[in-house]
Specification:
Layout (H helix, E strand, L loop, with lengths): L2 H25 L3 H7 L4 H27 L6 E6 L2 E6 H15 L2 E11 L3 E10 L5 H19 L4 E8 L4
Parallel strand pairs: 4-5
Antiparallel strand pairs: 1-2, 3-4
C-alpha cells in the first residue's frame, strides 16, 4: 500500500472513530440529554448505539489496515557502488513480460509486481499457454525465468513469484 493511501485511510479511520464516539455520547442517556431522550423509545437508543458500534468497528478495521499493511512503491531505489539506481514498477513488469514471452510458448502474459524497499519484488504472473501439455513444468519454468530476470538482469531481489496458467481448452 502506498504511503499516501495509508495516511488517507488513517485519517478516515480517526474521523470514523470520533464520529462513532459522538453518536454514542449523543444517544446514550446522559443527565442533560435524559429529558430529551424520554420522548424517544428505548429501542431507538439501542439501534443508534448498535449503529455507532458498527461505525466504530469499521473505523478500527481501517486503522489496523492503515497501520499494519506493507508499504509498496512505484519505484525501487537500489544502492550501487557508485550511487543508487531507481527502477520503476512498470519497467520491471515490462521486462518480465518480454522475457516470459520470448522464452516460453505463451500467448498473453500479465505481470503484476509489488515493489517493497526491504523485501524487493513480489510478482504475480498470469499466462495463456498455446498448448495444454505439461502445465506444471511450464509454470515452474516461467517462475524460474521471472526470478532470473528480476534478480540477475534488473538487480531487483525477488522474494516471491506466483504463476497462474489459464488452460488453452
Amino acid at each position: 500500500m502506498r504511503p499516501l493511501t495509508k495516511i488517507g485511510l488513517g485519517l478516515m479511520a480517526l474521523l470514523l472513530l470520533i464520529a462513532a464516539g459522538l453518536v454514542a455520547a449523543y444517544w446514550w442517556p446522559l443527565l442533560p440529554l435524559q429529558t430529551v431522550m424520554q420522548h424517544y423509545p428505548l429501542a431507538t437508543r439501542f439501534i443508534m448505539l448498535g449503529l455507532a458500534a458498527i461505525v466504530a468497528l469499521i473505523g478500527v478495521i481501517f486503522l489496523l489496515v492503515a497501520l499494519l499493511r506493507r508499504t509498496t512503491h512505484r519505484q525501487l531505489i537500489l544502492p550501487q557502488k557508485r550511487g543508487q539506481v531507481s527502477v520503476s514498477q512498470q519497467a520491471v513488469e515490462n521486462a518480465v513480460t518480454r522475457a516470459v514471452k520470448q522464452q516460453h510458448d505463451v500467448r498473453a502474459v500479465d505481470v503484476q509486481v509489488a515493489l517493497n524497499q526491504r523485501d524487493g519484488a513480489r510478482a504475480k504472473i498470469t499466462a495463456d499457454p498455446r498448448s495444454p501439455t505439461d502445465l506444471v513444468a511450464l509454470a515452474k519454468a516461467i517462475e524460474a525465468t521471472a526470478k532470473q530476470q528480476l534478480t540477475n538482469v534488473l538487480g531487483v531481489p525477488a522474494k516471491h513469484v506466483k504463476v497462474s496458467l489459464k488452460p488453452a481448452t
